Give the backbone structure.
Amino acid sequence: MAPLADFGFVGASTGLLIALGLGVAFGFFLERGGLGNAVKLAGQFYLTDLTVFKVMFAAIVTAMLGLFWLAVAGVVQLPLVFVPSTFVLPHIAGGVVFGVGFVVGGLCPGTSCVSASSGRLDGLAVMGGVMLGILVFNEAFPLIEAFYRATPLGPVTVPQVLGLPHGVMVAATVAAALLGFAAAERLERRARPGRE
Amino acid sequence: MVLLLAFVIMGRGLGASGAFSTAIASGVALAAPDHAAANAAYAAYAPNGPASLLTDWLFIEIVGVTIGGLASALLAGRFRIAVDRGPRVSVRGRLACALGGGVLMGIGAKLARGCTSGQALTGGALLSVGSWLFILAAFAAGYLVAPLVRRAWT
């Protein structure tokens, strides 16, 4: 019976209201978590503040486990959830360019909105930069379209590529995240001696 | 939790850069309709011309994110006009970095078909191969470049 939208429980205009509601919740929690602060986010790359890692992986693991169990219980039809298609080289190249932009700019596109709406001008500058970057990309699109569409794999998942059951990969990711959380706590304690 | 709700209700995750894409494409479609129609990158994000913006799921979602951030900041008494920056960088330097970093992220997010929200969180939770390549590449690049821009943050 879920995704609700695919089973006709949610129409187009209700969908937009839900988008607004989900957005408000997402923005609220990002601001609550201090993720509107670029200095805090940049701390991720100097191992002084690993909030980015913890929030990211907490969200990934929550959603992944939730989907997994709802699918097991037969509530959600996993094949109907939209999985983004993979394009190997563009994904890697995009990740590299994005990562450099992240450490220079200190915010990602989503957190820049939160940063800006809580009054920070640097957040506004990141938002402007992202739009400028998209404009540059779009204007150059005819030149890079071939690369953009290179090395397509379709909507594949990691367990499919590795030939593992989805559940095994979910468990492995959860284990890796838990180890990561423990390591993150240790690193943060080391970065701030005497402050607990 | 919010992300899980999005999957359950809509069968899709969250996204931020897609909203920016639609905003840009709609703006260009308004300012130069012929130019936008001739370029596949714009046409995909503004299929109905400038009006696409108001019915775009991700754009509405990002409007929500902005409202949510504002509400949280106001409720906590945290709202103030400021520039967050490292102790060794000027306000102007920080804003220049923010703009430059934003440009790179805009280009990177377009190449990878999504940013932290759409690729890393949403695709990551679905165990998409491309999403995990994006996450690993972004963190690797971030850590490699971090020592070079240490002055901006510490």
Remarks:
- Residues 1-32 of chain A form one domain.
- Chain A is about 70% helix and 5% strand.
